[in-house]
Amino acid sequence: MKKELIVQLHASFEELVHVEEEAGVEFWLARDLQKVLGYDTWRRFEDVVQRAVTACENAGYDPGDHFARVGKMVTLGSGAERKVDDYALTR
Length: 91
Description:
The protein is an alpha+beta fold.
């Protein structure tokens, strides 16, 4: 990878980080990362997340510590809102 691309991706990731107030844990929402990583559809990116969950399990870690299912409200074109599935991802 070119150094410029790595620097750009790192900056994009740091802009999207959230911090859980009480514990100070950093996390990212998968739907935000989907766009940065160039995935057009949630279905395709969710497949990638599921493979990462499997890799985490195979490495002997508890995926629940790194891949938390969460809901997120999104605004539709009509201005209405609806809840969609998402994941909170840690390092």
